Every structure is written in structure tokens, then in C-alpha cells.
Amino acid sequence: MTCEIAIVGSGPAGYTAAIYAARAGLQTIVIAGSEPGGQLTKTSEVENFPGYPEGILGPEMMEDLRRQAERFGTQVIYDVVEHAVLTAQPKRLRLSSGEEIVAEAVIIATGSSAKWLGLEAERRLYGAGVSACAVCDGFFYRGQPVAVVGGGDTACEEALYLSKLCSEVHLLVRRDKMRASKIMQDRVKSTPNIHIHWNTVTLDILGEKFVEGVRVRNVQSGEETVLPIRGFFVAIGHQPNTEIFRGQIELDENGYIITHPKSTHTNVEGVFAAGDVQDPVYRQAVTAAGTGCMAALDAERWLSQRRYLLQQAENSVS
Ligand code: NDP
Fold it and tell me: Which atom of ligand 1 is nearest to the CA of 177?
């Protein structure tokens, strides 16, 4: 199957790119990936996406974005890209069905995935107290005690954000030191309602239908404690979904795609990146949608320029 723009990923970045690209009259395909709709399909209510004064359920919002993209002619393929050739022109994407998508330009919007501890309770209570995003879900636990796991900048940022909403924040750090920058550590340490539990690992999250507590162990003393909490925030890092592009496209040391400053261009001609796959800092639906829009505009301009140059070359030959 051929198209002008292939978009890999169907979160807010991918669908926003599709809305802009298809509306510009470009033949646009979205390959939805293993989690159609992206991370928002796993959250409950989204209250911070502009335009929804009463909030909206994450899956419903993604359904709206999909329909909006399809309205302008986007074709959505529910499959996964298994192999990509980006450095040649045209670009080729092989899907798990065996089908090949041949595209003039590619927008990578494969997002990132939160890392989890691997506890059974994390899955069971996901969206019912367990979260990997304080900005998304912290509001639901205002005035209540919560826990944050991790010792990096993300964990500190989540703990500080939650400290303004929640009665108490228990920061669970597995070693006797944090990996976070000194300034973030200092802020956390000087916030009265953040309690740091050093050398502490999570054994289990308690509760059947919603989180009621967390059982932790101090790895030095061996002492086990139950902390009564309502929200459990895992902040042990994110993994950008870039494995299939490794070796072809420039990534930073954490695997995020590097884009040129103030644009979505990557180091490969005709390949653009949008959303969390190129953003370790903001990671919001609205910022992802913003860069999705930028990627479609960048891709559209790149295609026009390329066609113009090809036409010029053809004219000079004839
Ligand atoms: P990091 O990899 O920096 O930190 C992960 C933390 O989680 C570490 O403290 C690690 O512990 C801990 N951890 C890992 N696995 C487990 C586990 N199974 N159980 C308990 N704890 C665990 O990830 P971040 O997401 O914090 O940061 C990623 C990058 O993004 C960093 O470069 C960071 O500086 C940057 N960032 C920048 C921000 C900003 O500038 N505003 C905000 C957020 C992130 P251990 O140290 O023992 O391995």
C-alpha cells in the first residue's frame, strides 16, 4: 500500500498529525500500533485537555480524535510496524500482517511507556489508585495520603506536584540516595508533607477495588510497614518506544528521538517525530498534540519542497 504520509502511532500526537496531514489533502495512513489510542486509553478521566470543561474519559477522547482524523480521509490500520526502512526513499514499513506500507514521509509518534514495578496489584488497581502520572491523576487524591516510588527527577517532580494537592506524600526510595538532581532533592527534602522512606521497597499494593495502602520493607532493617494511602504513583522512568528505529535514527542516551530545535525534523530526511517519543520532559496529551500538528506541517512543507526540486531537476533535463 502506498501513501504520502505514514504516521506510526495513534495517541494524541499521531491523530493530531493525521488531522492536519489529511486536511491538507495528503494521502495519510495511521498505523495504530499495539495499543490503539495510546496511553490515554488506559486513564480514566482527562480533565486537563483544553476544550472539555467537564472532563472526558481518555478512551472517549481518543475515539473522537480518531473520528476527526478519519473525517478528512485518514486511513487507520490496526497493526504493528515490525520493521522499518527509513533511510531510503520512499520509506518502507513492514507490518506484522506482512503487508508493506510505502510512504514518501513518515511521522513517528510511537510514544513512551511507563516502567512498572511488576506487581500483580499494579495491573489490577491501575486507574483505581495506581497511576504513572501525577499531573493526570493527582487531582483525584486531593486531601488524601499518597505514595510515589522512585528516586529520579520524575519521582521528585511528581512528589512536589502531589505535595500541593495531597495531605501527605510518602516517597519510596529503594537505596540510601537519590539519582535526582541536587536542586530537586533539596526541594523535596524541604517540603514538610513529603516523607522520604530510604532503602524502602514496595512489597504489595493493598485494596481490592481501589488502593487502600501499600506494604513496604526497609531493606536494611528488614522491617515491614503498611502505609495507609489512596494513590500510588510509580515514577521509575519511561521507556520511549523506539526499538524498531534504532540504528537508523538519532536517539539520545535514554532512547528518545532527537529532533532539530524548534521543529520535528529528525536527522533522517523525510522522517519526523512527535509526542512523547521525542519528549522526556512535558509528556502531556496537549503537548503531544501540539508537536503532532508541527510534524504534519513540517512533513507537508518538506514534501512540497522535495516535489518542487524534483520538478526543477526534471525541467532542466528536458
Ligand atoms: P531515572 O532513570 O533518572 O530514575 C529512575 C529512578 O527510579 C531511580 O531512582 C531508580 O533507582 C528508581 N527505580 C528504578 N527501578 C526501580 C524499581 N524497580 N523499584 C524502585 N525504584 C526504582 O528516571 P526519571 O524518569 O526520573 O528521569 C529520566 C530522565 O529525564 C533523567 O535524565 C531526568 O533527569 C530527566 N527528567 C528531567 C526533568 C526536568 O528536567 N524537569 C523531569 C523529569 C525527568 P536507582 O537510582 O536505585 O536505580
Answer: 46
Catalytic site includes residue 3: no
Task: Convert 107-132 to b/e letters by CB count within 10 Å (16 or more is b).
Answer: bbbbbbbbeeeebebbeebbeebbbb
Q: Specify the pTM.
A: 0.80
Alpha-carbon separation of residue 292 from 23, 66, 96, 260, 317 (angstroms) = 14, 14, 25, 15, 38
pLDDT at 46: 84
Q: Ligand 1 test: best mutation among 171, 174, 198, 203, most atoms within 8 Å of CB? A: 174
**What is the number of the ligand 1 atom nearest to the C-alpha of 156?**
26
User: Picking from 232-241, 243-252, 309-318, which range would have the lowest pLDDT averaged per residue?
Assistant: 309-318
Catalytic residue among 137, 153, 279, 298: 137
3 contacts 103 by C-beta, under 8 angstroms: yes
The chain-wide mean pLDDT, for the chain, equals 95
